[in-house]
Amino acid sequence: MLAHELFEARRDLHPDLPAMVWGDRTLTYEELGRDSDRLALALRSAGVTGQPVGVFFERGFAIAVAVLGVLKAGCAYVPLDPAYPDERLAAMVRDSGARILLSDKAILDRIPVPDGTRATALEDLLSAVEDTPRTTAPAIGPDSLAYVIYTSGSTGVPKGVAMPHGPLANLIDWQCAHSSCGTGDRTLQFSALSFDVSFQELFSTWASGGTLVVVDDATRRSCQALIELMNRASVRRMFLPFVALQAIAEHASTVGAWPVSLREVITAGEQLQVSPAVRALFQHLDGAVLVNQYGPSETHVVTSLELDGDPLTWPDQPSIGRPITNAEAYVLDEHLRPQRPGVPGELCIGGPVLAQGYLGMPDVTATRFRTVPGVAGGGRIYRTGDLVELLPDGTIRFLGRLDDQVKIRGHRVETGEVEARLRALPEVADAAVVVRETAAGGKQLVAFCVPAHGARVVASAIRRSLAVHLPGHMIPSSIRDLPSFPLTPSGKVDRKALARRL
Fold this sequence. Notes:
- The chain has about 500 residues and is α/β, with parallel strands linked by helices.
- Among the domains are: about 1-165, Rossmann fold, CATH 3.40.50; about 325-350 and about 370-400, Roll (Luciferase, domain 3); about 405-500, 2-Layer Sandwich (GMP Synthetase, Chain A, domain 3).
């Protein structure tokens, strides 16, 4: 069954159970199902079945209604994060080809939509459709598009990952089978919709009959408020990147406030490190497990490792585990030949877990999605660009990147895109971006800029200019000027020499 069909099955089983809670408000499975049915009918009446639909909302119930309604209409949703700059959001809408942009009235006019796109308030669409018996959804199969999520691009242009239903249905089936959470258990709705983990967060909860606890932005930014919410709402499970887990663990250890109801913490998006604070957190959570999941946006989750038992015995840097059901992992050399266990190589993913590719970018798709004789039964593989090695126990150890890509606060960032934006500024002649690791184990971007002739590089002004084009996680935390860059013998920027200046 596809993800929205799993929701409908649970709606039939327990219509009056809460699908979501937000403060003192509750949305039952039947209420959410009914509103999403009305939206699906409105979209089909507008003739957009099979096409992308923009979804642009602040946190709340409307996100769930929009995502479910779009999928039931046979459309693919395009998540648009209100935290992103308007220009970047407009570029995503143009690139996706969305004919309809769903939003709230309060922020409806924020994005300058292109010709051919209609911005529509969700409440207006719902009020125009009467409650009707459930209608038959259009034919949707595993190859039908479910969403288009945009990631950073090395050329300075975001890339839209076109993900079909099949890989997502496989993921939800696997997640439900390997989670202790079931009917009535509560999962924190922590991830932004633009982060692909949000799909897993939403639908693995609904598919098992659970309840999502919505977190507003103010609470999300406060570790104390987040812990208080989890305790008040009896949250059993949460999905989050390592940097957020570390921040919560540090705060909990400092003040002695523990999210005591937590039993399952799933981290993804960044390399997991079991720090002293993380160990202390799990020593205070009765029997809780820590699950390290790995997967790029082009495949979603493809490997997993569960840590249980005494946290003092957990490794400092756990592996990324083994492939989930139907995912295939290959460690290949630069000629795409299999490497022996213990020999580092590029992690390539096969099996029915791959995205269709990058929307409207066939050349870029062809470089990352390949067919290699003798690998994956001759089917497609996705070249992750991640350096790994296969360990004797069959798990996979993550060793780093083969290129300039990095994860910042769980988001994938191509440093080349940040550099391209810097070079476009009139006061910058050239730019190079490197990564430094913080004491807490997170990562930050540091930009080195060569000033244009007669110009000055002022960090505050550079940041203001970048904020027009780039989301917060892509803006360097430090900006430094240099008269020229150190070069390697081949004439390239010596990034190792720059890193030594950090």
